[in-house]
Fold this sequence. Notes:
One of its GO terms (molecular function) is acyltransferase activity, transferring groups other than amino-acyl groups. By secondary structure, the chain is of the alpha+beta class.
Amino acid sequence: MPFTISECTDADMPRAFELLSLAFGHEHPYIESVFPAHATAEGRRVGGERFLEFRKADPLATKIKAVDVETGNMIGHARWIVCDGGLAPEFELDGSLDLMTVDPEHQRKGVGRKLLAWGLAVADKLGVGAVVEATEYGLGLYKAAGYKVKHDYEVLLPEKWAGRETQRYWWMARPKLTTEEAEGTEQRVEVC
Ligand SMILES: CC(C)(COP(=O)(O)OP(=O)(O)OC[C@H]1O[C@@H](n2cnc3c(N)ncnc32)[C@H](O)[C@@H]1OP(=O)(O)O)[C@@H](O)C(=O)NCCC(=O)NCCS
């Protein structure tokens, strides 16, 4: 399936939120808590507006999208934070993949890998590392791209939510590459 990767516009935010809702379904306790009505028409309208607010509020964030060339539909999206000197020097954090979702109808076709490659190509060009707070769904993909698990943890819930499933996260980091390594990965991180 041919698809392109490009930067999102404001008009893409409702579909970006819809993709989050479809991709996580009802299996992700964090999404259920923050957007309890995400699967309803009203919940998606509100979610799309919040995505637009988030986008406008964060100058370091770049949202990218995957678009199916045949249908013109947006089938995946990711939100990258590229610090590029925007953080105090004591921080080693340079670039972060903040969110990535792919339409369940188009998963396992290489879309996630390309959305990841976009940000890693930027990191390699800037000569910086990259981090991600992974869910269980993205673990394999990030490991294959050179991320290593630094820490994992479970978010404990207050007693009033005792019946809810807890959420597990993996903090992963991909160190900055040497010049030779970056050259070696050029093909892998090629951007559509
Ligand atoms: C994670 C996600 C973005 C991957 O998108 P995708 O387009 O399906 O990924 P790709 O087709 O590029 O897969 C690349 C590799 O990732 C791994 N992978 C992807 N989905 C996987 C899954 N459900 N289970 C195990 N490994 C998976 C595989 O190694 C895969 O390679 P392969 O298909 O050759 O075996 C997608 O499954 C998704 O939106 N999940 C729900 C939201 C989410 O958890 N996002 C990540 C938050 S950190």
